[in-house]
Design a protein that fits this description.
The protein has 448 residues and is of the alpha/beta class. It has 20 helices and 13 strands. Helices cover 42% and strands 13% of the residues.
């Protein structure tokens, strides 16, 4: 195309459109007349992406669903279990309790110990590159001959396949860790990109420790979709609460109950709502973006209970919060306390300096640890933010209501801990993260 450089940008995980494509990053890149941008996404999203992001130098290409081979599934299991983080120790515990395949569990345990040795990790990556197929994206590479592949989620299976193809063709790979929990919860990275982009210094430390990435190959940019999380962009409280059927003069508890993906039919949501009703505040129930929430007999009550449904999908690949992210920010900004379950919502809320209470109990108190919501707070990333003191962990309903009342009375409580969470998990909230990411991408096209 008349000497233009081409960059592939992947968008296979459902939240990438919000995290990257809808931010200043794409807006800045598309201004360069000498750059052709090819967004590669699932087939079902091609038409919407073309309308929303396409343009003169932005093309949307799609791929159809792909069923991994048996060998690919084996490699996926191997790379998952080469990780011995707290998250994967819990995963293996659940597997042992649920499947009762003790020999397989032993194999996984041995893999986890082997994963401590760098030569073993390197050998596993070599085997992955050598023996797994590299032709899935061959047609796109032949058609566009990219100079750069920007993999927005280095742990996603489609991104892995594209990076493997790029590596075989000598195409430069700029990878990104999509979210704050990925390095410790997604297993060992299968492909080492030429350069890596991360949101925070904390993730950089993890990439060096767990992913064998050299410090000089990592750029820290912040969280691009938080660039718009500020008071100036927010809808007024009166307008928002009128739409929700709530009273703008009342204090508001934002409650995000766990979906059945995590609660597995547990009646915890209804029990929590019943416990919160006597508090002198109104409830805003924000349903989870993936899966179904067991609401029991809970229904909206004007001036008391509102239910906000983002209309998520059955899995994260199908979910798309691009259009609804501003609405979520409005809800958080105008709430007084946020009650959630082991969710990134805690960080979203802290961006607006909102107190957060995590629920670490079940409606069915007889549930064993490996089935309980409690287990999620032993994941590495959750333990990290709990250590700051910026989020309170409630082990039962009584402690939850007690902490909520304290925050409603004094929202300044634990403010220093919330500042620490921002420093650790947002890095900078200066409105320039998307710009920094665009600069990192543009820098790869500049001659040395």
């Amino acid at each position: 195309m008349n000497g233009k450089k081409t960059v592939f940008i992947t968008s296979f995980f459902g939240l990438i459109s919000r995290n990257i494509l809808a931010t200043d990053t794409l807006k800045i890149l598309r201004r360069d007349p000498n750059l052709r941008i090819v967004i590669v996404a699932p087939e079902k999203k091609r038409e919407n992406y073309q309308k929303e992001f396409g343009g003169e130098n932005v093309i949307v290409e799609s791929i159809s669903n792909y069923e991994p081979t048996k060998l690919e599934r084996i490699f996926e299991v191997i790379f998952h279990n080469l990780s011995d983080t707290a998250a994967w120790r819990i995963h293996r515990l659940i597997y042992r309790k649920r499947e009762k395949k003790y020999f397989t569990f032993l194999v996984y345990w041995v893999l986890s110990k082997l994963g401590y040795f760098k030569p073993i990790r390197s050998f596993a990556r070599w085997l992955d590159y050598k023996f797994l197929p590299r032709e899935r994206f061959a047609g796109l590479f032949e058609k566009y001959r990219p100079s750069l592949v920007f993999s927005t989620d280095i742990f996603h299976s489609n991104d892995i396949d594209m990076m493997r193809e790029a590596g075989a063709r000598g195409v430069f790979i700029l990878g990104m860790v999509r979210s704050w929990d990925n390095i410790t919860s997604k297993g060992l990275n299968r492909i080492k990109p030429d350069k890596l982009v991360v949101n925070t210094e904390k993730i950089k430390e993890e990439a060096i420790r767990y992913n064998d990435i050299s410090p000089e190959d990592i750029s820290v940019v912040g969280v691009p979709h938080y660039d718009s999380y500020n008071a100036e962009n927010r809808k007024s409280r009166e307008v928002l609460f009128k739409e929700l059927g709530l009273d703008p003069k009342k204090k508001t508890i934002f409650f995000a109950p766990p979906s059945d993906i995590y609660a597995d039919g547990d009646p915890v949501t209804e029990k929590i709502v019943n416990a919160l009703l006597p508090i002198d505040a109104q409830l805003l129930l924000r349903l989870y973006i993936v899966g179904d929430v067991n609401l029991g007999n809970i229904k909206p009550i004007p001036g008391k209970i509102a239910i906000d449904d983002p209309g998520g999908g059955s899995d994260f690949t199908k979910t798309d919060l691009t259009a609804g992210d501003a609405h979520l920010a409005d809800l958080l900004y105008h709430s007084d306390v946020v009650v959630a379950f082991a969710s990134t919502l805690a960080i979203d809320a802290v961006v607006f300096d909102k107190p957060v209470v995590f629920i670490a109990f079940d409606g069915d108190t007889s549930r064993p640890y490996w089935k309980s919501l409690r287990r999620y707070y032993d994941y590495d990333h959750q333990k990290s933010i709990l250590k700051t003191g910026g989020v309170k962990l409630a082990s039962n309903i009584e402690k939850m209501t007690e902490q909520i009342k304290k925050y409603l009375t004094n929202p300044e409580l634990d403010k220093e801990g919330r500042r620490e969470i921002i420093a650790e998990r947002c890095w900078k909230l200066d409105g320039r993260s998307g710009q920094r990411l665009a600069s990192v991408i543009e820098r790869q096209f500049q001659p040395l």
